[in-house]
Amino acid sequence: MVTTMLTTMNSIMPTESAMKPTTADHGEDLALLGLLQLVSPALPIGAFAFSQGLESAFELGWVTDEATLGEWLEGVLEDGLTRCELPALARLQVAWAKGDDAGLAEWDAWLAANRETAELAAEDSRLGASLTRLLESLELLPPGPSRESPALPAGAGYVTVFAWMAHSRGVPVRQALLGFAWAWLENQLAVACKALPLGHTAAQRLVERLRPALVAAVDEALMLEDDALGPALPGLALASALHETQYSRLFRS
């Protein structure tokens, strides 16, 4: 019996050669850790202060519970992130890799033009500025301008700076998009837990419900041509505009 147990344990234990790290493994590991750092709620850029119009949806009675929150998030993901932030992030990361200053400026401006309210525009610019200041203090800003390393566009938005960090950390484009979508979902659920309120167990049920949707959103975003891009979120735009004059609020957007 003891011999059988030892044989079984030996069969499931990794071999010594399999446990030895390689340079390639280190590169992938560092890229993953860099992405986790970038999407962490602990990143000190103030993302917790913004709800992207969700707080107004609570106030208006459009989102009242777990079920309606799930519907809202699915809609924003499908008609918003999938056709705006995610494909733009992919294009921006490619532009960083190619040293394409014109491409960086074009997609950064395109994103800014798609912010339909003052609060949404302010959120993007303030988070971009906060992340830029953080990277400057960590000496992680692009050294540009040069063909190999262009400079950040003036007043770059959050997605553009995020793309630089993903590129500089060696994060594959697809993984960068998944990380960005995950950070968005975590932020929205944190807002709901504070303001709806939504219990933490309910929030985790929504995570389980929406994880496949995040993957599907990234799949679609990576296939879209330029002329198919652009968000279609009139409800979110209206909620965001009404939030500007909402009497009582916890969040800045």
UniProtKB/TrEMBL annotation:
According to the record's subunit comment, the protein's assembly and interactions are: UreD, UreF and UreG form a complex that acts as a GTP-hydrolysis-dependent molecular chaperone, activating the urease apoprotein by helping to assemble the nickel containing metallocenter of UreC. The UreE protein probably delivers the nickel.
GO MF annotation terms: nickel cation binding
User: Which GO CC annotations does the UniProt entry carry?
Assistant: cytoplasm
Q: Which UniProt keywords apply?
A: Chaperone, Cytoplasm, Nickel insertion
* Designated name of the protein: Urease accessory protein UreF
Function as written in the Swiss-Prot or TrEMBL entry: Required for maturation of urease via the functional incorporation of the urease nickel metallocenter.
The domain of life is Bacteria
Show the Pfam families listed in the entry. UreF
Species in which this protein is naturally found: Halomonas ventosae
Q: Which family does it belong to?
A: Belongs to the UreF family.
Q: Could you tell me the gene encoding this protein?
A: ureF
Its localization reads:
Cytoplasm
